[in-house]
Amino acid sequence: MSVHPVLPAEVLAFAQRGADWQRWVAALPGLRRDLCDEWQLALDGDTMHGHCALVDPVRTRDGQPAVLKIGWPHAEADHESLALRHWAGVGAVRLLRADPRRSAMVLERADAGRDLNTLPADAACEVVAGLYGALHVPAFPQLRLLSERAAAWSMQLLALPRTAPLPRRLVEQAAGLAGALAADPGCDGRLVHTDLHYDNVLAGVRQPWLVIDPKPLSGDPHYEVAPLLWNRWAELVDTGNVRTAIRNRFHTVVDTAELDEDRARDWVVVRQLVNAMWALAGEVPAAGVGGYVTLCLSVAKAVQV
Fold first, then answer.
1. Which CATH number covers residue 22?
2. Which of 95, 113, 131 is the last residue of a domain?
3. Spatial CB neighbours of 146, under 8 Å, sequence gap ≥ 6
4. 220 in catalytic set
5. What's the pTM?
6. 150 part of a folded domain
7. Count of the separate structural domains present in the chain
8. Of these residues, 78, 184, 195, 199, which one is catalytic?
9. pLDDT digit string (tens) for 189-229?
C-alpha cells in the first residue's frame, strides 16, 4: 500500500479561502487514499498543485505513468473531463479515468516541469495558435454557452456606475461588443478551452505539446486569444514598449491561427473590461486592484487601431 504524503503547505493554505475550502482540504487526504485504492494507483513522485487542485504523479495498475487530479468542485470545471474525453488526446492530455462526482480524474502524464513559459513568448503564441485547429471542434451539448455569458456581461458593464475608475468610453464599447457578439450565431458552437495560456500547455511524449486544465464552453475560437496577452506581463513591461509587445503577440496568434482580426480584437476588449469589472468587485485582493485594472486597460487599448 502506498504511503500518502502530507499535503503541501500551499494546498493547506487553500483552507484560508473560507469554510467550504476548509472542508474540502480536510477531506483531501482521505479522498486521495480512497481513489488510489479503488483505482489501483501507486503514488509515483512529488505532489503538485494548481490554483484549485491537488495533482499526484501515479502509476496505474499496469505500470503506466499518469497523474491523479482532484479538483475543487466549481462551475468552471464541471465539464473538464468531458472536454478531455471529447478531444481524445488530440492536442490535449488523454483522460484515462474520471469521477465527476468527486471532481477526480486520472490523466496522461506530461512534463509538468516544461510548459510554454520555457519558450520565448512569441514562439509560445505560435504553439498555442497551432493547437487551436485540433481543439476547436464542434461543441457537445452539455456545455454552457458563451453567448449567455456575453449577454450577461453586456448588462453588467452597462450597470457599472459612472464613478467606477474605468474609462466610460471603454466600458460602453465593451458592453456594446459583448451584446453584439452574444446575438451573433458564431458566438456558440465550438469547444473552447477559455483559459489557454502558457502554464496550461505542457511538453508531451507522443506529441510535442499537450493542453491541460480546460474550463470549457460552447463558444467562439476568437475568444481564446486574450489570455496570451495578459499572462507573462512582466516580460511585456521589460520590453520598454508594452503596446508594441502586446500587438506583436496578438498578431502572431491571429496570423498563425488564421483568425478574423476584428473579431479577435473585439473579444480581447470584452474580456479585459470584464476582468477589470471583476477586479473592482473584489475578485482581486484589494492591494493589487489598481495594478490589475491598469493591466486590463493597457491590453484593451493596445489591440485597437
1. 3.30.200.20
2. 113
3. 187, 188, 192, 217, 218, 219, 220, 223
4. no
5. 0.93
6. yes
7. 2
8. 195
9. 999 999 999 999 999 989 999 999 999 999 999 999 999 99
